[in-house]
Amino acid sequence: MDISFLEERGVLVTSLSGRIDAVTSSELEKSLVAKIDGGAIKILIDLQEVEYVSSAGLRVFLLVAKRLNALKGKVYFCSLQKMIEDVFKVSGFYSLFSIFKDRTEALSKF
Amino acid sequence: MIVRGAKEFPSQKDYLREMIGFISGFAQDCGFLSEDVKKLELASEEAIVNVISYAYKDSLKGNIQIDCAFEDNRMLRVDIIDTGLPFNPLEASEPDLTDSIEDRAIGGLGIFFIKNFIDEVAYYRKDDRNILSLFLKKANGV
User: What is the pTM of this model?
Assistant: First the structure.
């Protein structure tokens, strides 16, 4: 898994790639929590390059959403591949979160 | 005809990728579509993580044996076998699927994924071993 951050229109765009699983999820959690502690309250997680997410990854997304909710912030997701979309749907995360087709659409909704 | 493959790994998260790779490699060799291989990887990860965390309590020394069998070019069976504490993941309660971010509980999705992403799952306790069998049908059977 690779993580890269980019600030765009006041939103912290987080691009992830590879596999978000029980091996990599703790690194993702640390990076995102550090950003929130550093003041980021609008976060877009771009999943375009992510090929695999397990429950360990969803756990991090939910934790981030809970943190940001408490701070009156927002986390959006965009560009889900088929497998990721299935995982979001089965877990109920699809209706729990705001999910957009691509980055441009997501950024226009903040 | 049955094609088989088996391998044993230490029960540690450091070996998770190797274990998943062994299972997905077997499924690929059997001609499963990559979309189905991913579902099997997901179910396998959730099952193996449970074994490490609960059957071996993240600390007990032990191995995880993985037996793969593919029968009549149709049904793939993956047995995940450990000698840890008795643990039947199928008895776990259903996860909280509430629609509110504040109220939604973290966790409990692993078993739910196992049940939802593959065709069948079964648990046995035999000779002091936990055996979890995952079944996946080949959609593109030749």
Answer: 0.94
DSSP letter string, B15-29 = GHHHHHHHHHHHHHH
In this prediction, residue B99 carries a pLDDT of 78
What domains are there in chain A, each with its CATH number? 2-105 (3.30.750.24)
Domain span at residue B16 reads 2-137
Residue B35 inside a domain? The answer is yes
Burial of B123 (0-12, 13-18, 19+ CB in 10 A): middle
**What is the predicted pLDDT for the residue at B59?**
86
d(CA B95, CA A74): 24
Residue B76 lies in a domain: yes
Best of A55, A71, A77 to mutate (most B CBs within 10 Å, chain B): A55
- Residue whose token pair is 């809970």: A66
pLDDT at A103: 97
- pLDDT tens-digit readout, A58-92: 999 999 999 999 999 999 999 999 999 999 999 99
Flag whether B142 is in a domain: no
Q: ipTM, 2 decimals? A: 0.93
Find chain B residues with C-beta within 8 A of A96's C-beta.
99-101, 104
CA-CA distance, B105 to B52, in Å (whole number)? Answer: 22
